[in-house]
Amino acid sequence: MAVSESPRKLLPTTETRKLLIKWLVALLVPISVFTFVWLGEQIINQIWLGILYPQNPLYDHDLWSLSLQAIFMLIVYLSTIVLAGYLVAADSGRRSTIEVWCDVVFAAVIPLILLASTANLLIGLGLGVVIWGIYLFVRNRVRLAMGYTPPPPLESLHVIDEQGRAALVRLAQQAGFWFATIFAVISLIADLVFYASGQLPDLLLIWVVARTILLPVVGYFLGRLGGVIALRYVIRPDAGVEESKNDQAEKGRTGWRSNARKVSREQQLHSLSASRAKEEAKDVIPNDRPLQSKGATRIYLLILMAFVVLYPILDPILFGSGSKGRITSYGDLGFYVILALGLNIVVGFAGLLDLGYVAFFVIGTYAWSMVGSSQFYKLTGIIANPSTFSWFFWPMIIIAAVITALWGILLGAPTLRLRGDYLAIVTLGFGEIIPIVFTQMDKYTNGTDGIAGVYSPATPCIGSFCINWSNSPTPYYYLILIIIGACIFANVRLRDSKLGRAWIAIREDEIAASSSGINLVNTKLFAFAAGAFFAGIAGVYHAAKLGTVAPGDFNSTDSIIYLAMVVIGGLGSIPGVLVGAVVVYAINLLILNQLDTYATDPNNILHILPQLLPNFTFDNIRNLLFGIILVAIMIFRPEGLIPSARRQRELRHTKNEDEEVEASALDQPPGTPEFEAEMHVE
């Protein structure tokens, strides 16, 4: 198939108008629902009222809190305007308007309404995911019934010259301007209604007028920013990858890059297999699914990061009372995320089935408990002053992680000759042994009584401001966010390193990896040590946050839960295991308990279940529901919710694609530009 070499011209006026209407309506609906249905406008008004009326006890007057709320609202609204410009510039225009609107309604509007109606983050998102899954299932079945076949991804590729890129930016500017203008008018009408009903003070009319005037101007420039983002993913006439020439002597003297030439980006994509071409082409602009492209995903991540970082400030506003309990539970969720990241190294990267991962978590937990508590006096005879020993929490994060990594090596050493089921059985035995050992070590661990009074971390005071670790869950929430960020960074660096590629090679084919010169012994031991290292970090955090540790808190079924996080999220996928940890933790410990609370409320529709089934509770069918979810995931999406590209290609490839790859590889003789383009693209 040929790639069009003609520059992308300005769309006809009618087509431009249709494209603008499609995306403006698609984005204005969810942003309006957030603004006028789920407290968005109320948050903005409360910020101004707290600043302008400092004597009124009904409003929050904490300037720090108000500033963070204002930052979040700015990020949400400004990012949405940028997204409008990006989507209009990135859309190929081939997908129908109705289909796009349905996608946005089920992906954004319905979850927002559920969040507003349930006032519970995980319940609302969980129901939204279920509805989204049903919608995708029905949509795919309708397409099959209608004989719909998606166009080949490479047919939508276009080389965009300077004139075409300028046209894209102008289109994005129009989108940003009109989106901001329409939203300003809608907000103005809503505020006038509030003012007429006496809910809006006269002083805030100044803000209303200023916002109405400024939004279109801001929208113009933010739309342009969306267009600039879109330009990063277009194919330029001179875009390409470097390819070595055949002069080996010159290459040896001057190095690879000093002796290279360009292969065009479209040649590069055409040389890929069908599955690889589909993955690469979905981010090239213009395309058929701009909502799922890389540029849009980065804007989503910006909004998500702002929400996660500012959540303790937003929780009481968005979800009402009970903030302390919710923030505490999300702090507990954090160490599940770290455990999933660590186990993903062992199982996802290296392919070593570990069913005893809980043992490393136990070791890390006790490492800090025996140092950061009165137990230290029983061990050494040294009186542990809490105000002093609390400071040892920070070095103990690394020390305990290193100790746990050494235990990982001790476990890995005798299992190097084992694979598959045999390795799983040995690690399962290790997971059973360690908690029992700590139970029997009365002198060191207090046996079955465990260790109580584990110290919280200590931090210096800034002036009169001191972090309250004892009575507030917020410091632990931010601590776990920082630790998770560091662990994700380490995981990414490990995955992309020489060691990470060796792990993947062992997972794919251990014999071939050994034949390629990979040291199987050292590489496997590094995998066990790295996975145990992260479990040790999670254990130290867990001990400090909980304040007490007992061997009864750990059992071998926990390892199954941790493995389920990795499998459900996606083996080898870092974003996948993050989502898997959230899903498993939410279902196992939060959502079902909340459903039981709803079932006991006579005014809730779920109250009918205990009436029809005496002694019914969702907690009693926890394992049943969890098992059904696991079976459904394995049947319909075995690669996980957010799979790695490599894993998805393994499980979703077809015979035709395999044949196409073989023909492509054999048809191109070595040394030709086509052969080199195929060999050097990853």
TrEMBL record:
Its main location: membrane. Keywords: Cell membrane, Membrane, Transmembrane, Transmembrane helix. It is a multi-pass membrane protein. Residues 650-682 are annotated as: Disordered. The chain crosses the membrane at residues 20-39, 66-88, 100-116, 122-138, 175-197, 203-223, 299-321, 333-353, 358-377, 389-410, 422-441, 476-494, 525-544, 560-587. It is found in: Cell membrane. InterPro entries: ABC_transp_permease (IPR001851), LivM-like (IPR043428). Pfam families: BPD_transp_2. PANTHER family: HIGH-AFFINITY BRANCHED-CHAIN AMINO ACID TRANSPORT PROTEIN BRAE, HIGH-AFFINITY BRANCHED-CHAIN AMINO ACID TRANSPORT SYSTEM PERMEASE. This is Branched-chain amino acid ABC transporter permease. It comes from Dictyobacter formicarum. The lineage of its organism: Bacteria, Bacillati, Chloroflexota, Ktedonobacteria, Ktedonobacterales.
